[in-house]
Amino acid sequence: MTCREFLDYIGAYLSGELSEAECRELRVHLDVCSQCVDYLDSYQQTIRLSKIACCADSDPVPGDVPEDLVKAVLAAMKQRPIERA
User: Fold this and answer.
1) CB contact at 8 A, 68 and 10
2) Residue 57 resides in a domain
3) Is residue 85 part of a domain?
4) Mean of the pLDDT values across residues 76-83?
5) Please, which residues have CB within 8 angstroms of residue 73's CB and are 6 or more apart in sequence?
6) Would residue 84 count as lying in a domain?
7) Which residue range forms the structural domain that includes residue 38?
8) 30-76 pLDDT tens trace
9) Count of domains forming the chain
10) How many other β-carbons are positioned within 10 Å of the β-carbon of residue 68?
């Protein structure tokens, strides 16, 4: 898996939509690519902070936000209760 392929699959990975084989391949890539590990951490932090802000329920999503990010945020919001700071 390349870094570009990782980016293509990150939303589906976090929302549990990948097959076990695809998840395995993605994890193998993460074992050797610290940049993608950092990106995944940043992506997950974005989801967490979005849940805290509760912006998905009240504000329209700007048009320049990637669709995969919107899907991942919405999926994460459904899976976990909102954490308050």
Assistant:
1) yes
2) yes
3) no
4) 63
5) 46, 47, 50, 51, 56
6) no
7) 3-79
8) 999 999 999 999 988 888 877 766 554 556 777 788 888 888 877 77
9) 1
10) 17
Q: How high is the pLDDT of residue 56?
A: 47
**What HEC string does the chain produce?**
CCHHHHHHHHHHHHCCCCCHHHHHHHHHHHHHCHHHHHHHHHHHHHHHHHHHHCHHHHCCCCCCCCHHHHHHHHHHHHHCCCCCC
d(CA 65, CA 83): 23
Q: What average pLDDT score do residues 12-37 get? A: 93
Whole-angstrom distance, CA of residue 5 vs CA of residue 48:
23
Q: Whose CA is closest to 1, among 31, 37, 28?
A: 28
In a domain, 44, yes or no: yes
Report how far residue 36's alpha carbon sits from residue 42's, in angstroms, rounded to the nearest whole number. 10
